[in-house]
């Protein structure tokens, strides 16, 4: 079982921020990633629809064989985490609870900001999780759907981005928010633009980084982690799939992961199934 890869799923590019942390913190582990770029973004969709998509991605990875599933998508976590945990026989990790724990640990004022897609914010999962852990917290949530579009369209370095970020994050300026949760895995790709707007006194919580800390703990707890010796005997592998354009995805992944060898397999959506028509590289 421990030789199997960790599975990662997301609506598009954003989950690569989680994968990047996995490659840094868990170098002995193999990974397999599916980005559902053809149906991104998930934020404006109903949670019922998103749950259906998450199950499609999950079933594809189950057929491939995985030892743990990481829902590297906040909207997907809000829509399907509980359902997946109740159904699957393997550990399932979302990105919301880890980010909440880190925010509570970090804040000094007790005033925490959360930004996410419309679906994530409307679900109330961040607010509920934070207040469940500490009723004294002051939670301020703002939907920032444009940020996902900016990342998916690879416009992060566009000069207009600063004005967009400044307008969207205006509610956080001038109050005592000292911790801001990046409640979408796309957002760390815009971390510099966000930090420039909110200022250096506000600590940004990268849910992807915090999630991999939890993944590492669970791998050890369930005796699923691979040792350096095992990795030397059977080197870890990385597999990437997308329902969108594989060339665009590969270009983005190569740059973000700083690995020019990244190859991306195309997936075709056929009814309730995802089909890999290119089983060989």
UniProtKB/TrEMBL annotation:
<comment type="pathway">
    <text>Cell wall biogenesis; peptidoglycan biosynthesis.</text>
</comment>
<comment type="function">
    <text>Provides the (R)-glutamate required for cell wall biosynthesis.</text>
</comment>
<feature type="active site" description="Proton donor/acceptor">
    <location>
        <position position="73"/>
    </location>
</feature>
<keyword id="KW-0133">Cell shape</keyword>
<dbReference type="InterPro" id="IPR001920">
    <property type="entry name" value="Asp/Glu_race"/>
</dbReference>
<keyword id="KW-0961">Cell wall biogenesis/degradation</keyword>
<dbReference type="InterPro" id="IPR033134">
    <property type="entry name" value="Asp/Glu_racemase_AS_2"/>
</dbReference>
<feature type="binding site">
    <location>
        <begin position="74"/>
        <end position="75"/>
    </location>
    <ligand>
        <name>substrate</name>
    </ligand>
</feature>
<dbReference type="GO" id="GO:0008360">
    <property type="term" value="P:regulation of cell shape"/>
</dbReference>
<protein>
    <recommendedName>
        <fullName>Glutamate racemase</fullName>
        <ecNumber>5.1.1.3</ecNumber>
    </recommendedName>
</protein>
<dbReference type="Pfam" id="PF01177">
    <property type="entry name" value="Asp_Glu_race"/>
</dbReference>
<dbReference type="GO" id="GO:0042802">
    <property type="term" value="F:identical protein binding"/>
</dbReference>
<feature type="binding site">
    <location>
        <begin position="10"/>
        <end position="11"/>
    </location>
    <ligand>
        <name>substrate</name>
    </ligand>
</feature>
<keyword id="KW-0573">Peptidoglycan synthesis</keyword>
<dbReference type="GO" id="GO:0008881">
    <property type="term" value="F:glutamate racemase activity"/>
</dbReference>
<dbReference type="GO" id="GO:0071555">
    <property type="term" value="P:cell wall organization"/>
</dbReference>
<dbReference type="InterPro" id="IPR015942">
    <property type="entry name" value="Asp/Glu/hydantoin_racemase"/>
</dbReference>
<feature type="binding site">
    <location>
        <begin position="185"/>
        <end position="186"/>
    </location>
    <ligand>
        <name>substrate</name>
    </ligand>
</feature>
<dbReference type="GO" id="GO:0009252">
    <property type="term" value="P:peptidoglycan biosynthetic process"/>
</dbReference>
<dbReference type="InterPro" id="IPR004391">
    <property type="entry name" value="Glu_race"/>
</dbReference>
<feature type="active site" description="Proton donor/acceptor">
    <location>
        <position position="184"/>
    </location>
</feature>
<comment type="similarity">
    <text>Belongs to the aspartate/glutamate racemases family.</text>
</comment>
<feature type="binding site">
    <location>
        <begin position="42"/>
        <end position="43"/>
    </location>
    <ligand>
        <name>substrate</name>
    </ligand>
</feature>
<keyword id="KW-0413">Isomerase</keyword>
């Amino acid at each position: 079982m421990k030789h199997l890869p960790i599975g990662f799923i997301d609506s598009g590019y954003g989950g690569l921020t989680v994968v990047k942390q996995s490659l840094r913190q868990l170098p002995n582990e193999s990974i397999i990633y599916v980005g559902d770029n053809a149906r991104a973004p998930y934020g404006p969709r109903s949670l019922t629809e998103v749950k259906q998509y998450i199950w499609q991605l999950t079933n594809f990875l189950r057929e491939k064989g995985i030892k743990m599933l990481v829902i590297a998508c906040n909207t997907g976590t809000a829509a399907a985490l509980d359902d997946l945990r109740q159904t699957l026989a393997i550990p399932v990790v979302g990105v919301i609870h880890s980010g909440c724990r880190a925010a509570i640990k970090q804040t000094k004022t007790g005033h925490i900001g959360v930004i996410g897609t419309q679906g994530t914010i409307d679900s109330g999962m961040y607010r509920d999780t934070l207040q469940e852990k500490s009723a004294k917290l002051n939670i301020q949530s703002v939907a920032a759907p444009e940020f996902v579009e900016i990342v998916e369209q690879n416009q992060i370095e566009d000069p207009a981005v600063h004005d967009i970020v400044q307008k969207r994050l205006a509610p956080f300026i001038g109050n005592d928010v000292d911790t801001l949760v990046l409640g979408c895995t796309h957002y760390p790709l815009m971390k510099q633009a966000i930090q420039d707007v909110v200022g250096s006194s506000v600590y940004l919580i990268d849910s992807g980084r915090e999630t991999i800390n939890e993944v590492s703990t669970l791998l050890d707890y369930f005796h699923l982690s691979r040792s350096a010796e095992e990795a030397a005997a059977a080197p870890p592998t990385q597999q990437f799939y997308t329902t969108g354009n594989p060339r665009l995805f590969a270009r983005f992944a190569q740059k973000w992961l700083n690995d020019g060898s990244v190859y991306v397999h195309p997936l075709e959506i056929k009814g309730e199934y995802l089909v890999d028509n290119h089983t060989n590289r």
